[in-house]
Amino acid sequence: MPLPKIERKIDVEEALKLRIKHRLSFEEIGKRFDCSAQAVQQRLSKFLAILKDPDVLRAYEENKSAILSSIEMEMLQKMLDPETLQKASLNNTAYTFQQVFNANRLTKGQATEIHDQFTFQASLEEIRKRKEELLKEIHVEEIKTHEKT
Is the dihedral of CA 119, 123, 124, 126 positive or negative? Predict the structure, then answer.
């Protein structure tokens, strides 16, 4: 079944970029796609339910790390509040903190997994052992080859 004329005319991805990144009005976007502002608004309605205000979204994006740090700090304060600790399980509180902490690390370009030095040392030791085994196998194969000739 073919899409209605309006839906074929409007490039949703481009229209969203124009609305969010370039802050164009529905009328301005409609002119670009040769359709009405109402058609643009209708086509973007699913996204607009989530992205109500492009300015608010931009402000959030530009300050995401600070916002998440603030939430993280608030979670720490709540985790230390005796009343909160009595109401919620420690597991649930710790899980919530972990999620905020990980989100904050990601916004700062850091990994969410923390590996200790012992884990890396153990892995390095395994690699060294495997290297020695392979070198011995190569040496044995070289000897066998040399003996055949």
Answer: positive
Euclidean distance between CA atoms 119 and 110, whole angstroms: 19
CA distance linking residue 46 with residue 58, whole number of Å: 19
Strands (E) located in 12-128: none
| Token pair 């395994």 in the structure block, residue | 126
Question: Which tokens in the block code for residue 107?
Answer: 């916004």
Residues 136 and 140: their CA atoms lie apart, in Å, by 6
Distance CA 31, CA 22 (A): 15
Q: Residue 63 carries which DSSP code?
A: T
pTM for the full predicted model? 0.40
Summarize pLDDT for 93-110 with one digit per residue, the tens: 778 778 878 888 887 877
